[in-house]
Write a structure and sequence with these properties.
Chain lengths: 298, 289
């Protein structure tokens, strides 16, 4: 709810005097409703990106080609001085993940919604300037200080948001179309240190395992009226988190024993699916890169 | 995988002891040996030392005293020997979630063989073989965390099967399994034993142990208090009471039947309800005749 309201406020400030008020109101309310409903109505408790990747049609595309292309697009998006590059990449990645990859739209949106929420809230800090007097296109007086939004701040914030969204979309498509063993294999091919790869993989795995555990513990607390009011909820949440810490420690130790028992010594390795690079895949990758570069330059 | 069942000594521990944090003595002078293809149940109450024994057998824990032998050769502390021990003596953990680490069933099964340094082709072959043996081919691309308890258990056994272990230790394999899955697991274990793999099960489920095990080892306070055939162990009230265990239901019924019909004592004891029914029917028909 708070995220949705803050996002509404952000959109209002970002496009104030740049869009007609009815359009602005419609855009703000739509985004706020989208974030609010997405948070309330989830088809599952959480989506594991790795599971989605297993069923993506893009899984059969050569992992190195996919990762190199998307990382290049990400770099172009971040380096761009043009907001249209980021917006183009958001759309292109949506088409790639949902229509080409066959991922369900609600799953894509659910995964994208989290970074979008962070970006919009973080954008508020970029948008506002604190001044002793009123200035710019919009200003609020709080205890004698003016929180103002200038036209330049609106432009630079829009640019940062667009660049970030473009880059995040590329990262999400990598995650949603490439199973973890293949990402690991590509990192290994790029000579990424083993320790970093192992840590990255284990942290990634543990997020989902501990999240599942958290949901179980939360449901158990809920069933015993542990979340009946605000005060009780705070107490219960603190207990759930401390228990989660203890359980994660125990779990990590058991997990390490299980890995050691299967001769784990150094470097987590899994069987990787090797997909050959096809000419049309290279052509599509190059075309996507050229179009993005053209938008950036023009 | 159709070699005849061998009965040579595969693995032996002599006088092993293990103490946690220099205080709690979990294993105290344990000596046991296992032959290829045999089915052994290890029984004992919680804290009796069963899981510690398994971790020592696999090489995750190094006993503070005692010796371990594999195929009659002492296992030293060298990395090569420890790898050989871990490959030969596979361990299936009680909770599959603490064993499974990969994002798909196929990757999960490949983890052990890849750690053995095998080629990709060999690993692919072993993964295929394990998927088929455990009847989980259709779950190849599934994320293990979304499988049912029984399916996860099969994946965790497939993990070890793919390492071509000669002896598989299973810690509480029937815990949290429904009867149908427990029955399926029983068939899998019997199948593995028939191809010459020694199966050692740690369990509280005396009925399961009675059905599948030829030999029963009982642990109490870190020591072996009985090591004999299943009927000998389950007939000993003293051993069962020391270990805090009960007699299997079928065995208790069989004993009542034998008490009333002493001629049955020479017959092999029934392991399944069907075998028991046949024996009971023969008694009834004799009584009627």
């Amino acid at each position: 709810m708070i995220t949705a309201l803050l996002s509404l406020a952000f959109i209002w400030c970002l496009f104030y005097e740049r869009l007609p008020v009815p359009v602005l109101a419609l855009a703000g309310i739509s985004l706020a409703l989208f974030l609010y409903l997405n948070n309330r109505h989830k088809h599952t408790e959480f989506i594991s990106i790795d599971v989605v990747a297993q069923f993506s049609r893009l899984k059969t595309v050569n992992a190195t080609l996919k990762i190199v292309t998307l990382l290049a697009l990400m770099i172009v998006s971040v380096a761009s001085r043009n907001a249209y590059t980021g917006l183009f990449l958001v759309l292109a990645m949506l088409v790639l993940a949902v229509f080409v990859g066959g991922i369900k739209l609600h799953e894509y949106i659910q995964i994208l919604a989290l970074p979008v929420s962070f970006l919009l809230i973080g954008g508020l800090a970029l948008l506002f300037e604190v001044r002793p007097e009123a200035a710019g296109v919009l200003g609020f007086n709080v205890f004698g200080l003016w929180f103002t939004v200038s036209a330049e701040a609106q432009l630079s914030t829009a640019l940062v948001i667009a660049r970030s969204l473009g880059a995040i979309s590329c990262l999400i498509v990598i995650g949603m179309s490439t199973p973890m063993p293949e990402i690991i294999a590509v990192l290994r091919r790029f000579r990424c240190p083993e320790l970093i790869i192992d840590l990255m993989y284990l942290i990634y795995r543990y997020i989902f395992i501990l999240l599942a555990l958290y949901h179980e513990m939360n449901a158990a607390a809920k069933s015993r009226l542990g979340l009946k009011d605000y005060r009780t909820s705070l107490r219960t949440t603190a207990r759930v988190y401390s228990n989660l810490l203890a359980r994660s420690h125990h779990f990590a130790s058991q997990n390490f024993d299980a890995m050691e028992s299967r001769c784990f010594d150094q470097g987590i390795r899994f069987l990787e699916q090797r997909n050959n690079v096809r000419a049309y895949q290279v052509a599509v990758s190059v075309a996507l890169l050229l179009v993005t570069l053209a938008i950036t330059i023009v | 995988m159709t070699e005849p069942k061998e009965q040579s000594e595969l693995f032996r521990v002599e006088g092993i002891s293990y103490r946690y944090d220099d205080r709690y003595l979990a294993l105290n002078d344990v000596s046991l040996s296992f032959r290829a293809g045999e089915m052994v149940a290890i029984l004992g109450s919680n804290g009796a030392g069963k899981s510690t024994f398994f971790l020592c057998c696999n090489g995750v824990l190094r006993p503070q005293s005692g010796t371990i032998f594999l195929h009659g050769q002492e296992v030293s502390k060298s990395k090569k020997d420890i790898t050989r021990q871990r490959q030969a003596v596979g361990l299936v953990f009680q909770d599959p979630d603490s064993q499974i680490i990969a994002g798909s069933v196929e990757s999960e099964i490949s983890f052990g063989p890849l750690n053995l340094g095998l080629s990709n082709q060999e690993v692919e072959q072993r993964v295929e073989e394990s998927l088929e043996q455990m009847d989980i081919v259709r779950y190849r691309d599934y994320a293990p965390q979304y499988l049912s308890g029984g399916e996860k258990k099969r994946v965790s056994i497939a993990d070890i099967f793919a390492m071509h272990s000669e002896m598989i230790l299973l810690d509480e394999p029937t815990a949290s399994l429904d009867p149908k899955n427990a029955e399926a697991l029983e068939r899998i274990l019997i199948g593995l034993s028939q191809v010459g793999i020694a199966i050692v099960i740690s369990t509280h489920d005396v009925d399961f142990a009675y059905r599948v095990a030829e030999r029963v080892v009982v642990f109490a306070e870190g020591q072996v208090i009985a090591d004999a055939s299943a009927d000998q162990v389950f007939a000993s009230a003293e051993v069962l009471s020391r270990a805090g265990l009960k007699q299997p239901l079928l065995f208790a019924a069989w004993q009542i039947l034998v008490r009333e019909n002493p001629s049955l004592s020479s017959k092999p004891w029934p392991r399944t309800i069907e075998q028991f029914e046949l024996l009971a029917a023969s008694v009834n028909s004799r009584a009627a005749g």
